[in-house]
């Protein structure tokens, strides 16, 4: 990271309170009678749905127009309560001005018992009456598919189904819109068909691995058209229900240690019969492609060293680590191939030179720049339901602040705690950040942490070790001077 970029990130840090306190993201609650005011219309809208990976990525490019007499800066997008629980990575940008950073986003609730919730987007500058602005909205849905059929043989091809609306659910009237769906292959055996318009007799229009619903004429606010697609996805549907990522900084050792603990599930089709190891071994020669997960690759930062890989049984030797000046790649193989409905918890870890991530500031503090999320990089993708990142700083570190390029809507809680380990006295200062619904598209997003490390704190541990050794020797010497012999009576 360049010096100017680091300083820019430092200036935008979010301060955290004293150890033990925390700040968490909260939803905004609106009156139960709330409905989004009809102050906008969607002049032109393109909804792009990608089902190419084992999570759904949606992009909405929309030209919004202020049809009210007063300037407006709040745009609402509706979701169901189920969608909100699986929604992640929500970001909004100006399509014509990339320098206008991500817009402020809030999840708002107007009725806790309603199935409709809203995401509120705040425009950086109120849009004047009659003016238009083109914005780009992107987000992800986790646990989006259902295998169809739900159970298959281990050598059969897996198909997934996804349901959505051909019209984008909107709080405003849409003058013109269309929905494009991108698939991992052109094998799409089933999809809902709709009457066409104009020269197009039937929707969707199929072009290779893409279906296009629309363009549609004007649709009122709240209009939906449920459709379903079924497509071939002969790859693992990997879902991490929980990832615990520890980043431990050592000044004396000049080292940053990483450890990640995964709870991994395969959410694809279950096996319709018992797993057959002989068939599995045979299929690797004539049918290498399978919906089973048999290998995971972890691209690490250059300079990473001393990797390890364990599961609940113990150390796993079926792994390979390749490291040179251009790359560091850890490849692991689970003890057994993972099929639909199977679970595999495991742990990986590695070390890296502190100089690759840690810098000292001119004012005397330190800045740590690490990836918020690393993890596997697979063609089929990886999704993470719950992520907890712990940055374990040296004992006595204070004035901890952080900034991250992970979408703010995905950060649920952050705070400073105390972590006690070997030879600690007061415990190590630990920044804990909890996030939800992340995907591997967000790999390498930065987490920048600054902190102060006073001289007294830096020499506390050596003094304690030295004092302990002196006390041990003195105690041993004193014990040696005690005469434990009993005098015999004369």
TrEMBL record:
Supply the source organism for this entry. Answer: Podospora didyma
Q: Subunit comment for this entry?
A: Component of the oligosaccharyltransferase (OST) complex.
Source organism, top-level taxon? Eukaryota
| Protein name per the record | Dolichyl-diphosphooligosaccharide--protein glycosyltransferase subunit 1
Signal peptide (residue range): 1-22
Q: Where in or outside the cell? A: Endoplasmic reticulum membrane
| Membrane topology annotation | Single-pass type I membrane protein
Subcellular location, principal: endoplasmic reticulum
């Amino acid at each position: 990271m360049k010096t100017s970029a680091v300083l820019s990130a430092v200036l935008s840090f979010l301060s955290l309170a004293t150890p033990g306190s925390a700040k968490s993201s909260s939803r905004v609650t609106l009156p139960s009678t709330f409905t989004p005011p009809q102050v906008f219309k969607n002049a032109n809208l393109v909804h792009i749905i990608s089902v190419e990976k084992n999570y759904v990525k949606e992009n909405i490019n929309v030209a919004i127009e202020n049809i009210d007499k007063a300037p407006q800066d709040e745009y609402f997008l509706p979701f169901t309560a189920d969608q909100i629980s699986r929604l992640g990575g929500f970001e909004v940008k100006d399509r014509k001005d990339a320098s206008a950073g991500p817009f402020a986003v809030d999840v708002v609730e107007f009725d806790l018992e309603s199935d409709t919730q809203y995401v509120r987007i705040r425009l950086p500058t109120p849009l004047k009456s009659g003016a238009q602005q083109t914005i780009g909205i992107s987000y992800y849905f986790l646990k989006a598919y259902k295998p169809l059929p739900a159970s298959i043989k281990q050598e059969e091809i897996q198909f997934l189904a996804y349901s959505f609306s051909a019209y984008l659910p909107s709080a405003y009237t849409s003058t013109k819109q269309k929905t494009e769906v991108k698939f991992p292959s052109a094998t799409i055996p089933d999809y809902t068909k709709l009457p066409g318009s104009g020269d197009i007799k039937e929707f969707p229009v199929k072009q290779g691995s893409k279906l296009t619903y629309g363009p549609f004429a004007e649709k009122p606010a709240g209009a939906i058209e449920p459709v379903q697609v079924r497509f071939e996805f002969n790859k693992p549907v990997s879902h991490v229900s929980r990832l615990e990522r520890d980043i431990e900084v050592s000044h004396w050792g000049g080292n940053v240690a990483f450890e990640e603990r995964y709870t991994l599930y395969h959410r694809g089709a279950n096996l319709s019969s018992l797993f057959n190891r002989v068939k599995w071994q045979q299929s690797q020669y004539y049918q290498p492609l399978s919906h089973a997960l048999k290998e995971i690759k972890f691209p690490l930062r250059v300079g990473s060293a001393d990797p390890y890989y364990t599961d609940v049984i113990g150390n796993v030797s079926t792994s390979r680590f390749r490291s040179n000046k251009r790359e560091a790649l850890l490849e692991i193989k689970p003890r057994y191939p993972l099929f639909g409905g199977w679970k595999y918890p495991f742990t990986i870890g590695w070390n890296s030179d502190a100089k690759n991530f840690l810098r000292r500031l001119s004012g005397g503090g330190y800045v740590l720049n690490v990836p918020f999320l690393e993890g596997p990089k697979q063609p089929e993708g990886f999704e993470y339901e719950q992520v907890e990142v712990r940055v374990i700083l040296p004992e006595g570190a204070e004035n901890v602040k952080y900034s991250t390029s992970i979408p703010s809507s995905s950060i649920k809680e952050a705070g400073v705690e105390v972590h006690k380990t070997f030879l600690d006295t007061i415990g190590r200062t630990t920044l804990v950040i909890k996030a939800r619904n992340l995907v591997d598209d967000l790999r390498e997003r930065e987490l920048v942490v600054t902190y102060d490390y006073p001289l007294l704190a830096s020499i506390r541990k050596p003094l304690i070790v030295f004092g302990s050794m002196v006390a041990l020797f003195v105690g041993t010497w004193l014990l040696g001077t005690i005469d434990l012999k009993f005098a015999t009576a004369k």
